[in-house]
Amino acid sequence: MSAGRRLAELSGPAAAAALGPGSVVVLPTGAVEHHGPHLPLLTDQIMADRVAAEAVDRAAAAGVDAWVLPTLAYTKSDEHAWAPGTMWLRAETFLQTVVDLGRSVAAAGAERLVFLNGHGGNVAPLGVALREVRRLTGLRTFLVPALVAAPPPDGEGLDELGLGIHGGAAETSMLLHLRPDLVDLSTAERWVPEHLAASELIGFHGKPVTFGWLSDDFGPAGVLGDPTQATAAYGARLYEASVALAVAALTEIAAFHPLGPGHTVAGGAGVAGPVEVR
Amino acid sequence: MSAGRRLAELSGPAAAAALGPGSVVVLPTGAVEHHGPHLPLLTDQIMADRVAAEAVDRAAAAGVDAWVLPTLAYTKSDEHAWAPGTMWLRAETFLQTVVDLGRSVAAAGAERLVFLNGHGGNVAPLGVALREVRRLTGLRTFLVPALVAAPPPDGEGLDELGLGIHGGAAETSMLLHLRPDLVDLSTAERWVPEHLAASELIGFHGKPVTFGWLSDDFGPAGVLGDPTQATAAYGARLYEASVALAVAALTEIAAFHPLGPGHTVAGGAGVAGPVEVR
Amino acid sequence: MSAGRRLAELSGPAAAAALGPGSVVVLPTGAVEHHGPHLPLLTDQIMADRVAAEAVDRAAAAGVDAWVLPTLAYTKSDEHAWAPGTMWLRAETFLQTVVDLGRSVAAAGAERLVFLNGHGGNVAPLGVALREVRRLTGLRTFLVPALVAAPPPDGEGLDELGLGIHGGAAETSMLLHLRPDLVDLSTAERWVPEHLAASELIGFHGKPVTFGWLSDDFGPAGVLGDPTQATAAYGARLYEASVALAVAALTEIAAFHPLGPGHTVAGGAGVAGPVEVR
Amino acid sequence: MSAGRRLAELSGPAAAAALGPGSVVVLPTGAVEHHGPHLPLLTDQIMADRVAAEAVDRAAAAGVDAWVLPTLAYTKSDEHAWAPGTMWLRAETFLQTVVDLGRSVAAAGAERLVFLNGHGGNVAPLGVALREVRRLTGLRTFLVPALVAAPPPDGEGLDELGLGIHGGAAETSMLLHLRPDLVDLSTAERWVPEHLAASELIGFHGKPVTFGWLSDDFGPAGVLGDPTQATAAYGARLYEASVALAVAALTEIAAFHPLGPGHTVAGGAGVAGPVEVR
Amino acid sequence: MSAGRRLAELSGPAAAAALGPGSVVVLPTGAVEHHGPHLPLLTDQIMADRVAAEAVDRAAAAGVDAWVLPTLAYTKSDEHAWAPGTMWLRAETFLQTVVDLGRSVAAAGAERLVFLNGHGGNVAPLGVALREVRRLTGLRTFLVPALVAAPPPDGEGLDELGLGIHGGAAETSMLLHLRPDLVDLSTAERWVPEHLAASELIGFHGKPVTFGWLSDDFGPAGVLGDPTQATAAYGARLYEASVALAVAALTEIAAFHPLGPGHTVAGGAGVAGPVEVR
Amino acid sequence: MSAGRRLAELSGPAAAAALGPGSVVVLPTGAVEHHGPHLPLLTDQIMADRVAAEAVDRAAAAGVDAWVLPTLAYTKSDEHAWAPGTMWLRAETFLQTVVDLGRSVAAAGAERLVFLNGHGGNVAPLGVALREVRRLTGLRTFLVPALVAAPPPDGEGLDELGLGIHGGAAETSMLLHLRPDLVDLSTAERWVPEHLAASELIGFHGKPVTFGWLSDDFGPAGVLGDPTQATAAYGARLYEASVALAVAALTEIAAFHPLGPGHTVAGGAGVAGPVEVR
Q: Taking 50 as the threshold, does the pLDDT of residue F7 lie above it?
């Protein structure tokens, strides 16, 4: 990362001078949670950390006033609470944490806060936080995924039925690319709940009915997907695609206004401006 | 509705006798919130209420042991907090309410709880609640939308750019079908943030980047969509499609198991069984 | 009910236009809780719902600017938590809910909020809420019972020793009047804790010492009273008396000022005016 | 007080040995709040403290296994928050405090807990606490007033219209009896909201409609009643009547069972026994 | 104590008139907790109560505008939760209580609040409260110990290895001085965890590593120290030393300013002034 | 660091296999907060991070079964809330976070949890957490400072009067040693509140009276100490001393038992064993 885009490496006065209405502050959100025997507890954090750093760097090089904060390491991983090693915050603790940090960012003079999220279990609570932080602090808030889909390098489709959402081919490939020393493919096993693919309405996403699940609802492994199909080459593609998406997102976010381009009014009547720092 | 499928019309002992592992309990979630000058505050509640009642009735007639609870009238409508008439719960209050009700349902002997939701602002917090209730009570939890898309009756596409999410053609049509006495089309105006459609990444859904918004971020009307295109005939189609989706969902939910059909084990290691009633 | 007195059937702008300093907003509070084998879980809600609607209608016809909100269905029923079918909120959840709704009413421009309460278990927490909402929002707050005593039609006294407070002759009669289809008198049994009547000091009300009880402290039925004495005719009398009381209460409330008639100052030094909507 | 009835003067092991199923533990609840210029902030606490100590002493002498705890000094006095000198807990803090203390009493082996309350503003939150503590800890809980009405010594009626509820003739007389050094009658003024007596339905108690009030709603004095009618002789009568009521209450409480005399079963199905001490 | 220095013995208006920027308000914090078989549950409270009253009296006589509030009887004693008789607040309840009281003191017009603390278990939570109250209310906050070390009267060193922190020679001596009627030395036993003295790094204080402990971690007695070495004469010395420290502390506090003597500015940029009383 | 001592780099099953009763789990606690113009916001985090990693590595090499978790980046920095760039959690959020993580560590099979803390503002809340986590989870908990005093390399004393606690010579020297690229000595200024050294009783530590302060109470710089005296050589000494202390602490902690060496019983009666993972 180009020196200076890590906000917390600045001094307080330097951070205050650096941030302004045009700044985009990125808070990567990771997790420390069970990902099966083949992946480290840090999997989501490594992805969020690395994609955020690279994307902020590239976006800044392209003229976006982007800044990255230290990754939030511990988040809402209660679907893996049953699995030793998972370090999880309750929903209430996680939401309070994110609101507290949002207030801090607003007090520092920025107007845009991006959660760059590496853990699927954070999507719903961050969905709540997006609005909570917007309403309470006046910040414009955004949620960007740290990992996006990409076609496998050999042009062949993955055989995961779209169910590889935790410890499957995508995450394992990313880790093979980013931290191969932490991956043990010898213990990787396929855990694809194939019947779910046959389900007409109920599913993880893209289907109209969602459901509350814990990761051991699908079997003792706590894995959803087929890590045996993972390769470092696929990981490299996923990483590039994810960084590219994040760079594009930061660029678009920097210019985004709900009333359309060119508008500069800070907020609607529903926002009372940044709350007092208390 | 066929007598007896409204759970709260039973006595306590009758409810206890009626509910069992195969039962599907439906909690409709509405809202009391600003929907522009042409629609009642009750809009989301009317939709959730009517679709839930009809769907439970039809599902029961088809052999699903479905039950409907009284609609939760007041929910998380803080995106409309700026608009007089909106009656909103804070995120914390809403989550506690839903968890309390989940515990009550679990204590009554059911194993499946469905939120049939009429208000978009509830989707994220209910996403949190799905897992929270599952983990704390052992219930299997599901989220079903009260309103789904349907093609307009005349075969022509709507001109809302997919942005008609609040007080637009769909909701207005539904209300013209269900409660025309509460709709005042003479005050309906088009409020489509067209620039959002041009946004490559940022959007309400279907796009990879979501954002935190208050309804007056898009203009003083607090409406997103074009209610001038609404018709009762389109409302009838939407209603039928929504009920049909809900009936199919209840049917699938009644037989759903994360390990696939035929499995009966109640939960994974992560679920300790229903919590004590305290 | 005369069209327009159901506040949530108005649009947001219409509600804002309708409400003013002279308005009286009524929030009926019901319950979904065990009432013995002869009464529906909805008993308290039906009473609150019906009495509120009728009273607001009559009061409005008499010139009171009264409005009714959707009934709060789920409330603090923990004394029946042991009984399957009871859907209860914890004290904390209930208080937060009522405070959130109070803030919403204050933001809508009204100055008077009435809880018209059908469930005895809500009296103490609403007593807390009356002051909490007054202090935090500046609203004037009132608590009106949905069910009041009335002499039985045949002039004979009831034989309940004043202990018919839950599922007894009064509630059962009301339901026989309002929803006879939901009452099963064949299962009604007398459960009067006669020794309590002999207690000099300890009792439910009217005696100086109160106590904390759960409904199964008095026996396995969870009923206090003698529903076998209930009749629809008595229910009609109770309903009329309750509506009359509520109408008179709304009329008096509309003109009430703690400093006496003619005063218009909104509040004492202790009230800082409506809190910001956050 | 006879040595040994102040529970906290015992050692831990002695307290554990002293308490058993037949014990009645009394927690006096006072307040530190504005009572006008003529009475000390401590008024309610002095009354609760003195009546509790004397009543426990007399009850113990009469064979009741009664014990008194240190008075809870700071309670829910938010109706006087506007008045400097008032030291108040929010509703939430007060309820948590009382629940925490209830758990502690249950863990010590007692089965009966009595709140002997000197402050009217605590009645509603203690009403909530009675049930909350019963449900969460299995304790039987009771609320006894520290001050009860008594006829004035000269046989003449007081001229307060029943509205002397805060700093009026009764409290001032009690203090003239118990701590005359802290009373300054020269500053006492009559503050009786006479119009309230004319109110048909709305009132403090005994009338069907209650309301949320702050003490300065009735004028700048924060007093309700006529302290100019107070005398030490009337205070002595009130004190005797209050102690007599409390002694009789403790006696009745020691033998009280909701199923009637002779029953010994600890609780209904709704009580799971004392909660773990955490 | 000289009349008038007990703040709560004043009326509200008198308290408001008495307090000003130069006032020092003292809140003694005690405990009701197990102290072994030889000491009363009230031990810490008696010490805090007596030292505070005497110190405020002497400081006032010396010209410090000091005031004492009623002792906070119930505090954070969870390290003794296992011992019957301990009445403890959870950390959250204790912190909320202290913050609520801090707001009340700030609203009364004082600018300095001193916790004079008799219970070691309160030191950490009061450390949190010092800053929390300062930040939220603008008060300057201080923590003064109610018991300080003093050499034994006979010039001989105590043989407790510095580990006599709960129910040991110091506390027992203080009680022998202040309330000998509540001490039973016949049951006193030596409980000194001598190995702790040998620990190089881990200890209660003065050593660099602290640890989380419950009082029964060190044995079944819940005592840390050697009460058999206690004497009333030593207690008298400890009392005098403790009062002297407290008087000196109040004197220094009255003149204290973080910018040094002579400064009068109320606070830094981080303090927004007393919060609104809500 | 030797591979494998970073717990979150293991997989869940590997972590479960690695941890046992003899394991010592280290959670470094940093901060993101203003440290003056010459130091980065990350100062405390860098110290905690680096000292923890090195100490765990050395302790493990010496046979201690030590493991380090990802550093908790955001903590309780409210004394610097006034300074832009500070990212702070409220006390409540911080305590909940630490308790949640403690539960997670207990569920993973370890029995000892060490907070290795780089931020002074965390000492009081971690003092609360030590006991809270011990009581709620059964873990033995410890607090070790990440930075300890050491004599300056040239044998001369520092001229900070013992008041260099935030951004002074010690922290600045550490950063000059660990991350010189992030230090800008050209902006360093001396901010020593010399009058505090003259204060007899009131001070930061070592003096009997502590006080609640915000960092701008001492001037606009938010610095306490004299960073102009900092050198990389002194930083190297401080780093070595701090690592050495931490290694010694981990070694002692691994063998620590409150009943003395050789004892293996897990806990006293006050600990009910690890709480259920919910």
A: yes
Its pTM stands at 0.96
Residue with tokens 């959130």: C100
Q: Which parts of chain B fold into alpha helices (H)?
A: 12-18, 43-61, 91-107, 123-137, 169-178, 194-198, 232-255
Assign 3-state DSSP to chain D and report helix, strand, coil percentages, each to 5: 45, 10, 45
Give yes or no for residue E213 having a pLDDT over 50: yes
Q: Is D106 helix (H, G, I), strand (E, B) or coil?
A: helix
Q: Rounded to whole angstroms, how far apart are CA atoms F181 and B103? A: 55
* Res. A108: pLDDT tops 90: yes
Dihedral Cα C42, C47, C51, C52, nearest 10 deg: -40
Q: Which DSSP letter does residue E208 get?
A: S
Confidence of residue A262 (pLDDT cuts 50, 70, 90): confident
CA distance B52 to B246: 8
Which two structure tokens, joined as six digits, stand for E56? 């405020």
Which residue has 């937060």 as its token pair?
C96
C53 vs C38: CA distance, rounded Å: 25
Report CB contact under 8 Å: C12, B187: no
CA–CA separation, D9 and E38 (whole Å): 11
Beta bridge partners of C28: C116
With pLDDT > 70 as the criterion, what percentage of chain B qualifies? 92
Share of chain A above pLDDT 70, in %: 92
Q: What is the mean pLDDT of chain F?
A: 92
User: What pLDDT is stored for residue A9 in this prediction?
Assistant: 98
Nearest CA in chain D to B276: D272
Residue D217 to residue C144, Cβ atoms within 8 A: no
Q: Do chains C and F touch (3 or more CB pairs under 8 A)?
A: no
Q: How far is CA F24 from CA D198, F47, F60, F72, F270, in A?
A: 73, 20, 10, 17, 22
Q: In DSSP terms, which residues pair with D6 in a beta bridge? A: D68
CA distance A106 to A91: 23
Instruction: Give the pair of three-digit tokens for residue B21.
Output: 């592992």
CB interface of E with D, residues 173-212, below 8 Å? 181-182, 184, 187
In angstroms, the CA B187 to CA C194 distance is: 62
Query: What percentage of residues in chain C have a pLDDT greater than 90?
Result: 84
If one counts every other C-beta atom within 10 angstroms of the C-beta of residue B203, the result is: 16
Question: pLDDT band at E152, cuts 50/70/90?
Answer: confident
Q: Report whether E133 contacts E141 (CB < 8 A).
A: yes
Counting one residue from chain C and one from chain D, the pairs whose CB atoms sit within 8 A come to 213
Q: Would you state the pLDDT for residue B4?
A: 67
* pLDDT(B253) > 90: yes
| pLDDT tens for each residue of C4-34 | 699 999 999 999 999 999 999 999 999 999 9
Structural domains of chain C ordered from first start: 3-276 (3.40.50.10310)
Quick one: which of B133, B103, B7 has its CA closest to B60? B7
Give A96: exposed, middle or buried? Use CB within 10 Å, 0-12, 13-18, 19+. buried
D205 neighbors D196 (Cβ within 8 angstroms): no
H/E run at residue F247: helix F232-255
SS3 state of residue A170:
helix
**Predicted complex ipTM:** 0.94
In angstroms, how far apart are the furthest CA atoms of chain B?
Answer: 57
Q: Is there contact between A and D if contact means ≥3 C-beta pairs under 8 Å?
A: no
- Find the farthest-apart pair of alpha carbons in chain D and give their distance in angstroms, rounded: 57
